[in-house]
Specification:
The complex is a heterotrimer of chains A (330), B (296) and C (446). With 330 residues, chain A is mainly α. Chain A has helices spanning 23-57, 74-82, 86-117, 124-130, 137-147, 154-161, 176-186, 189-201, 204-212, 217-245, 249-259, 282-292, 296-324, and strands spanning 60-61, 69-70. Chain A contains 13 helices and two strands. In chain B, α4 (75-82) crosses α15 (260-280), α10 (186-193) packs antiparallel against α11 (198-209) and α12 packs across α16. The longest helix of chain B has 32 residues, at 86-117. Classes of the chains: A mainly alpha (330), B mainly alpha (296), C alpha/beta (446).
């Protein structure tokens, strides 16, 4: 068989079930194994094994110092009926999913659209909106908590100039999460760039055709732009949701810095969620339970529940991606 | 396709140039749009400006209501390195990011190539597994992994974060595979006809053509490692000698009082390497970004 | 190559691996019996983990240096800045943690019951260490459920600090003795800016700020945490509602938002910007270590100390306060327990070492011998805390297998209560009871 007939790109399977595989196909198999062996090993060790082990641990009481002790469904009973903070943690995370993700996407879209319309889609303007997303998250959170200090921070000082009495931002349970949304909007540059690329990719002919049909600006957006952007929007939405379900760093660092507690003696876990557990996300609660309170079995149970919820969104994205990603090699 | 998109973004703005000649809406709209842009840009620059100003203030002035440094002092930038082991943090972050990236490239490039260009049984299942691993929240697997690393005696170091990249990184494999798909197979076929083995095809033909994609994947992982907070929190918190920048910056303010002037200076210092890398690698960066998102 | 069957096989292998690894954890260790007699010559390396930093870490270092001088063949590896979370991680990972010092008694319950700190009884008995030398309360909070896994290493007592200058300015010569007096004086001494915001506070009642925590206020009304069975006693206690109502009313009188804004702009507790040290707050609930910080950072401050005011109907309790302390133990993974024990014994019972540490840290010595030592040189204001230590009205937070968990649950409720409308106090406390008991059951129950 020449190499030509082995050109990947034929969507048909190269072997009928049951038929002996061709020599080249077998050779391909070995080569593929050689190339993918590390990744396969990685998936087994760092994905399959811990995933299964986590389920096992969720049925135990385990503090890492002594061997795990089987307690059956006890952790799950506690999780669903007795844990005073799990509901709040879950709601906090849900809050971020519902508010942080769409607001970021809409802002990114609007700014990208504005840049394109104003013909400023490159250069300094784009950089101004994109650069904040390059700042390491820890740095931007620390900076924001300082800037938004209710008493002496620049934000409230400037608001005072306009006669507005600024809220307590990161120190107020009702404002802490919105403050993180403000941060999230500031760093929306990473999605904005994708939208920018997509917007510039919409063929002008479509806009011209729409104009000929008598469409006005708004209608053009609705019938040309948005449909063209639909795949990217959906992608940004679902990956944003999956990221929001894991939201940890910004919330953890913000509550630590804002609480002002010198973490003398206690540890990072003691200030998580400040103020009043309003910033306690599900993954932070998992960390506190597992690595501050050393209830690793319980943390494993929390992780299982997280997987179930995240799994739903993963399935949605998978179906989406299958529609767009050609199967196998081209 | 991706090449043209990149070119578009880089300013070789053919489509936009065409549109430049049509003004829809007239002067009023132009003014409105630009006014809005200016307002938004000001808001976006606001944090940077004030962080800069605060970093030039004396420690005592930072918690007062005055916003303009009086006097101006650059001492915070020097003290950022003496009051905290910032250089050591940088060293650790660099170690983490560089090694992780190198290891990832060694393991993920061949795998991505195989998934994209070699027809083999199980490639779909493997790709599916890669995607699932990529989307999985890390907290789902963190407990057993932590137990495993602590039994290997590697907690208190960055190795639990670096070593797994030797066995592939799911997101990078995905990205690289998408990229390899865009390279026409004719080149590989030509090499095969000339008698080259698969490894030679990969090494001599594909790799040079895949440079942009590889650069993109490398840069993404570099940044992800540089910015990682949860990982170091879990694995290095008890060993200050191993703290990378992300963890050090968040934790430093704990022990004996935050000097906000120094902290703000640190935030800027910590951002600079990323900005530098970005400006040198803009092309690759945007390439990678479009690879992940645009075509879905 | 990757079929469903193989995937299933891999998963099964993984599960088996998980069980095997899990069974491996917590290996070795166990109760190693000490040698029949203490070694006559000490040599080797021993690690000391503690939470102090900066000036306080230097004090510990000087005590360690003395130990090394006494035993020239011993090298002590000091790890500073290690809080409870990090120490637990290190011990759990089997790292070389020989001696560890924790800032509070919170971990005694967990560490004693899980074996993270080894049982010290065999060593104590063998070397005939006189536990009677230890002060009463510290002795009680370093053991749990009959196991002694820690030794007290200096104690902390909480009282009231007051700025004499500011008090005088407003015509006061003596510190308040009851909570009502505290409130009246504080409100009088609070000054405001032109725009209505707070300029200086007489006393900051905000829960969660500085050392304002439920545990520290409890003794003012004799409030209890756990009953003899180790279950929550918070809901049944009459002291807590009294304290919480007083505190909330105090906060409301000043204005919760105003207080929050002012508090957010205050300096850090352990820096030279400490609000009490800079005169921003006239009276403060703080620990005895503050005297050392003031000596170091604000030596010209004219201040006085006194026991913290009691609730109006508990004036008989005056003179007491909240007591806790640093505790030290030997980590379960210690490879040289004899050497670790020698260091531990030195740090906690050697009179010279205890006195030196007490002088440097400004903490209360925990052995009678040290308390009576002529070398103890602490500022005059320190006497208050020695009295509080000795007072029968002082109290501490009992050790529990959930560590500081029960305190956090209650503090969460209290912080929410102070900003609310004041309703739901009784039901809320009952809920706190249930949550604490649930937690304890999850950790130790069947």
């Amino acid at each position: 068989m020449t190499a030509v007939t082995q050109t990947p790109g034929r969507t048909a399977r190269s072997a009928r079930p049951g038929a002996p595989r061709s020599r080249t196909a077998r050779k391909n198999g070995w080569i593929a194994l050689a190339f993918t062996a590390p990744t396969i090993a990685g998936l087994l060790v760092f994905f399959v094994y811990p995933f299964v082990a986590n389920i096992f641990y969720s049925f135990t009481r385990f503090n890492l110092v002594s061997p795990p002790e089987w307690i059956g469904l006890r952790n799950y009973v506690y999780l669903f009926t007795q844990d005073p903070l799990v509901v709040q943690a879950a709601l906090n995370t849900l809050w971020f999913v519902v508010f942080l993700v769409p607001i970021r996407i809409i802002t990114a879209l609007c700014i990208a659209g504005l840049l394109v319309r104003a013909k400023r889609a490159s250069g300094v303007w784009r950089t101004i909106f994109y650069l904040p997303s390059l700042v390491p998250p820890v740095a931007s959170v620390v900076a924001f908590v300082f800037l938004f200090n209710p008493g002496t921070g620049p934000v409230n000082q400037v608001l005072k100039l306009f006669g507005i009495d600024g809220p307590l931002w990161f120190n107020d349970p009702s404002w802490a999460k919105p403050s993180l949304v403000v941060l999230g909007v500031w760093v929306m540059g990473d999605i904005m760039i994708i939208f920018l690329a997509s917007l510039l990719d919409v063929p002008t002919e479509q806009y011209e055709a729409a104009s000929l049909d008598g469409a006005n600006g708004v209608q053009k957006v609705r019938y040309v732009t948005l449909p063209a952007l639909a795949p990217v929007l959906l992608f940004a939405l679902i990956t944003g949701i999956i990221a929001a379900l894991q939201y940890f760093t910004e919330a953890a660092v913000a509550s630590g810095v804002a609480s002002g507690q010198a973490t003398v003696g206690g540890g990072t876990g003691t200030s998580m969620g400040y103020p009043e557990n309003s910033l306690l996300t599900y993954t932070m609660w998992l960390y506190v339970r597992g690595f501050a309170n050393y209830q690793l079995g319980y943390a494993a149970a929390l992780a299982v529940v997280l997987f179930v919820v995240a799994g739903i969104f993963m399935l949605l994205l998978l179906r989406r991606m299958n529609a767009f990603t050609p199967e196998g090699a081209r | 396709m991706t090449v043209t998109q990149t070119a578009t973004l880089m300013g070789v703005d053919a489509a936009a140039t065409r549109r430049r000649t049509r003004t829809t809406g007239g002067l009023l709209l132009w003014i409105g749009e630009h006014a809005l842009l200016v307002a938004l840009a000001t808001l976006f620059l606001f944090p940077v400006v004030f962080v800069l100003l605060t970093s030039l203030m004396n420690g005592d002035q930072t918690l007062t209501a005055s916003l303009w440094p009086n006097p101006f002092t650059g001492e915070n930038y020097a003290r950022a390195f003496t009051d905290a082991p910032l250089a050591q943090w940088f060293g650790n972050s660099l170690l983490y990011a560089v090694l992780a990236t190198v290891f990832m490239l060694l393991s993920s490039v061949p795998a991505a190539y195989a998934l994209a260009k070699i027809r083999f049984r199980g490639s779909n299942a493997l790709f599916l597994a890669v995607i699932v691993a990529m989307l999985l929240p890390p907290q789902v697997t963190v407990v057993p992994l932590y137990v495993m690393w602590s039994q290997l005696g590697l907690t208190g170091t960055l190795w639990p974060l670096i070593l797994p990249n030797l066995l592939g990184d799911a997101f990078s494999v995905f990205l690289l595979r998408q990229f390899f798909l865009t390279i026409p197979t004719e080149y590989a076929d030509a090499a095969r006809i000339d008698g080259a083995g698969e490894f030679a095809v990969l090494w001599r033909v594909m790799l040079p053509m895949a440079r942009p994609g590889i650069a993109a994947a490398g840069i993404f992982l570099f940044f992800r490692s540089w910015n990682d907070y949860f990982g170091p929190l879990l694995y290095t918190s008890e060993n200050p000698a191993a703290w990378p920048v992300a963890y050090g910056l968040a934790t430093f303010r704990g022990s004996h009082g935050t000097d906000w002037g120094i902290t703000m200076a640190m935030t800027l210092i910590v951002t600079i390497p990323i900005v530098i890398v970005f400006f040198f690698a803009q092309r690759a960066f945007v390439e990678g970004v479009t690879l992940t998102g645009v075509k879905g | 190559m990757i079929t469903k069957k193989r995937l299933a096989a891999a998963a099964a292998l993984a599960a088996a691996g998980a069980l095997a690894l899990a069974g491996c954890s917590g290996s070795g260790g166990g109760a190693d019996k000490p040698a029949s007699a203490a070694p006559t010559h000490l040599e080797g390396t021993v690690s000391l983990w503690h939470f102090f930093s900066d000036r306080e870490a230097d004090v510990i270092q000087s005590v360690v240096d003395d130990f090394e001088k006494k035993y020239p063949d011993v090298k002590v590896e000091v790890h500073s800045g290690q809080d409870d979370e990090k120490i637990t991680k290190a011990i759990a990972a089997g790292k070389d943690v020989d001696v560890a010092i924790s800032y509070s008694t919170d971990i005694v319950g967990t560490f004693c019951s899980s074996g993270a700190f080894i049982d010290l009884k065999p060593y104590i008995d063998r070397d005939k260490v006189d536990l009677g030398n230890l002060s009463a309360m510290p002795k009680s909070y370093t053991e749990f459920d009959g196991t002694r896994c820690a030794m007290p290493m200096l104690a902390d007592a909480f009282g009231l600090y007051y700025n004499k200058d500011i008090l005088q300015k407003f015509g006061y010569t003596a510190p308040p003795k009851t909570l009502s007096e505290l409130e009246t004086m504080a409100l009088q001494m609070t000054t405001y800016n032109k725009d209505g915001s707070i300029k200086t506070l007489g006393y900051n009642p905000l829960m969660g700020w500085g050392e304002n925590a439920a545990a520290h206020l409890g003794p003012a009304a004799g409030a209890q945490w756990l009953d003899d069975k180790g279950q929550s006693a918070v809901g049944a206690d009459a002291g807590w509602p009294e304290l919480m109502t007083w505190q909330r009313d105090f906060v409301q009188k000043i204005g919760y938002d105003k207080l929050q804004k002012f508090t957010a702009g205050l300096g850090q507790e352990f820096s030279a910007d400490n609000p009490f040290q800079t005169g921003k707050v006239a009276m403060n609930l703080d620990g005895e270590w503050r005297t050392a910080f003031i000596k170091d950072q604000a030596p010209d401050l004219d201040y006085g100390t006194a026991p913290f005011p009691t609730a109006d109907d508990h004036t008989d309790l005056y003179g007491g306060g909240y007591i806790t302390g640093n505790i030290a133990g030997i980590g379960k993974g210690s490879k040289n327990p004899e050497l670790a024990w020698a260091l531990l014994k030195y740090l906690t019972t050697d009179t010279d070492a205890v006195v030196k540490a007490a002088n440097g840290l400004g903490n209360v010595p925990t052995t009678t011998a040290a308390l009576q030592s002529p070398n103890l040189s602490l500022p005059d204001q320190f006497q208050t805390f020695l009295d509080i230590m000795a007072s029968p009205h002082s109290d501490t937070t009992p050790p529990s297998p959930v560590g500081a968990g029960y305190q956090k649950t209650f503090n969460d409720f209290w912080t929410k209560f102070q900003s609310g409308d004041g309703s739901g106090l009784t039901e809320g406390l009952k809920t706190v009871d249930k949550q604490i008991n649930d937690q304890i059951a999850l950790t130790t129950g069947p």
